[in-house]
Give the backbone structure.
Amino acid sequence: MEGNEIYLIIHVALPLIFSEIPTFKKTLRIKILIIIGALLPDLIDKPILLLGLGQGRALSHNLLFLLISFLIIFISSRKSFEISLSLLIGMVFHIILDLPEVPLFYPFVSYNFLVIEEPIFHWVTNLLTDPLYLLTEITGIGILIYIFITNRLYHRSKFIKYLKGKSKSSIIIETKKE
């Protein structure tokens, strides 16, 4: 199992499009927490890898990590289900996007990891040579453009309103009172 891929754009875009669901509560805090949750597993494993301390993927890309993280965040946020669930949603999206190269059942199941000496060079090389890397990131860019266009985020003020959950999507049809 290699497991050193970095799909930054799609890891942010897919959970963010999830927050576009009309019945989903849209606040700045929820959107930011989903994005942080979507990046959290890599924010833990990549520094461990870059420091040469081994493969951090086993620590942050498994179901036990999701459960423990959720419980710690839930308790430390004074039992705020909104905060802990938003982070969990982001982390679940991250794990799903990294499948099948995820040690889901670590530490209960042993996994063999290939430790790469120069992970940044490896990532850049794969991004430039592997069509799956490129297609995945282009898909993420497409999702972000879709969000940008459908919410008409052409001006800074509209972008801020969108992040705060105050903008209305152009997809929603408004009816006029007569």
